[in-house]
Amino acid sequence: MESAQRIVSANGVSQAVRVAGPPDGVPLLLIHGNASSSAFWEPLLRRLPATLRVVAPDLRGYGDTQTAPVDARRGLGDFADDLAALLDVPGLFAAGARPVVVGHSLGGGVAMRLLVDRPERVAALLLEAPVSPYGFGGTRDVAGTPTTPDFAGTGAGTANPDFVARLAAKDRGAAGPTSPRNVLRATYVADPASLGEDEELLLDSVLSTATGDDNYPGTAVASPHWPGTAPGERGVLNALAPAHFRVADELVAVPVRPPITWVRGDADVIVSDTSLFDLAYLGSLGAVPGWPGAADCPPQPMIGQTRAVLDRYAAAGGTYREVVLAGCGHTPHLERPVEFVAELLALTGVRATA
Questions:
Q1: What is the pLDDT of residue 354?
Q2: DSSP three-state, residue 280
Q3: Main-chain phi, psi angles of 163, to 5 degrees
């Protein structure tokens, strides 16, 4: 399946969108994750049947979409509003289409927000290694209880400044663990060999990330609690912080509950109960000084939180399926494409091509 890029204006933002398949095909909306773009879906598109109508936008501040500011106080609402507006852009989907929505990582949180805001427009969700419905970091149990009143240890202040600087410089090198190339190899996948011939394309996608106070990582504020930083009100990492993104109760209460498939790898080091991006877990390893201990600041149980919320969703009348891929990291559609495509097509009702 070959894609073509279109530039459209929706929700006041100039958005770059990859489009593939016939306009009247079974609709599929692909939402990429943080520090990437719609280019991350290209390896998947090659494996999809031509009967699908695929729309894969670059989120604001990524790829070729306008570098519009992210108001973190709205959680991931700015991104979800952009996508909701795309649903009615003439020529992208058939009128009134209800796509299957696939969200990867941050995009999984955007997909949850879109379902909460526009449940009548979502046919099904596929959550690929999604952020917890309680946000990223700063919570202690499966109910999403805050570790501190200001959610210290989450948001923009947790970003590695060298990684941010290298993103801004479009650094393609492989010197040091914080180079974008090495972060891609070491954390996006469990085995860097799974990047294959697409590594340069995927690195281009990572390097398309807009940096700064209004985008990645955003602004930070000082905190009296360990590790001394709390989320600000601008930018992407703050939009992911539990101070601003907490959709668990809203997700359970949606009046229309489409089926959800949750696909994750058991070797994911980003979204995990032992996440290498959770300062509380890093503190427990001695990698961040001054950690106050598990009683005061336990690592976030990200997997347990998502499962608990989806159990509540099912108890309220919805359905979900959890698919765990052994030895797979944060990006199953790259690492285990056969299994991933099978789960995706099961939600669309489209048969795989020979």
A1: 45
A2: helix
A3: -60, -45
